[in-house]
Write a structure and sequence with these properties.
single chain, alpha/beta, Heat Shock Protein 90, 2 domains, 5-stranded parallel beta sheet, 5-stranded mixed beta sheet, 10 helices, rod-shaped
């Protein structure tokens, strides 16, 4: 079907000439003889484009174009003016016209109007294609995010099942050191599962709110340690910060190791004594500190272990591109993790 054009002009003679010219170029043209008549037709019918004269009785073209643009899904408007005052053309463009054509007395404007209609229709087609493409991209992104959330949900559940299986295995093992290793492995797995739980409930499936994640992680550690007969308060002070998923996993595993070690070794034979976790930003770095007021680093105790926890923390620190420093004295232990934002 040929594009439908509405030409609004109070001069019927000029209107017929414009109609004839546009029809000769393949357009279906309808005429309106006033602004109100044109608005009535636009509300009743669908037009691909409207060409609108400036000087008309009752309402000027500038008044009419504002009413056209206020309609739902309005057609593009080309402004036609016989005035050489550039301010009128500028006002029309500001009011929403897609183009303007100067109406000369010789009638050459009809050819210019034809070109403007062709160009404006192509421009409008491209705009609508771009809008449709943007909508499709947003819909595709929303579908992908929904699928990714579902994947994170399933991963979190699967990791929780694995941690549960380790807990069952622990009860079938009599050796205390083996039980301890299974507990440590279960805690690491739950730290990773916690990241996926955060992603499942997050609006952004690529970033993790570090404060919310650490709050949940520390609560899980406290529950696990309480079940094992260890009870110490853990105090978290964390700045507002979001980090990527893989970095959150690394931070979570390191915090799990450090807090668990503090629970196990900082206060032997004591039920009092707290553990403090602090996260701040220092320039372009994140500084995470885990400290206690216990007996300090127990090198003999560490030497008796497999040192797996140390190797795990070293690997996670390397993946963050950061550094991990451990300092101990008779007044406690302080671990400081630094990594770029």
């Amino acid at each position: 079907m040929p594009p439908k054009v509405l030409y609004i002009d109070d001069d019927p003679g000029i209107g017929r000439l414009v109609q004839k010219t546009l029809q000769a170029n393949g357009f279906d043209v309808e005429l309106a003889h006033s602004g109100d008549n044109g608005l009535e037709l636009i509300r009743a019918k669908s037009y691909d484009i409207v060409a609108l004269d400036h000087h008309m009785p009752g309402k000027t073209g500038l008044q009419v174009i504002k009413e056209i643009r206020a309609l739902d899904n309005p057609p593009p408007v080309i402004y036609v003016t016989g005035s050489e005052d550039s301010h009128i053309a500028v006002a029309a463009l500001k009011a929403g016209a897609i183009d303007y054509v100067w109406k000369d007395v010789q009638g050459h404007f009809r050819e210019l109007l034809t070109k403007s209609v062709e160009t404006s229709l192509e421009q409008e087609r491209l705009r609508r294609d771009m809008e449709a493409a943007d909508i499709e991209i947003r819909n595709a992104r929303d579908r992908a995010e929904l699928m990714l959330k579902e994947v994170n949900h399933r991963v979190a559940n699967s990791l929780a099942i694995v941690a549960g299986l380790l807990a069952l295995q622990r009860h079938s093992v009599a050796d205390a050191s083996a039980q301890d290793l299974l507990d440590q492995m279960s805690a690491r797995i739950m730290a990773i599962a916690g990241v996926h739980r955060r992603l499942y409930t997050s609006h952004d499936v690529t970033m993790v709110d570090l404060k919310e994640y650490l709050t949940s992680l520390i609560a899980d550690i406290k529950t696990a340690m309480g079940d094992a007969g260890r009870s110490h308060p853990v105090r978290l002070d964390c700045v507002a910060l979001s980090i990527t998923t893989d970095r959150a996993v690394s931070v979570g595993i390191i915090v799990t190791e450090l807090v668990t070690n503090a629970y196990k070794y900082a206060y032997p034979g004591r039920t009092d004594g707290d553990i403090r976790v602090e996260v701040i930003r220092s320039g372009d770095q994140v500084v995470l500190t885990v400290e206690d007021d216990g007996v300090g680093l127990d090198n003999t105790k560490m030497a008796q272990g497999t040192r797996l926890g140390t190797r795990v923390m070293s690997s996670m620190t390397s993946s963050l591109g950061g550094t991990l420093d451990l300092a101990g004295s008779s007044k406690g232990t302080r671990a400081t993790l630094r990594f770029p934002v």
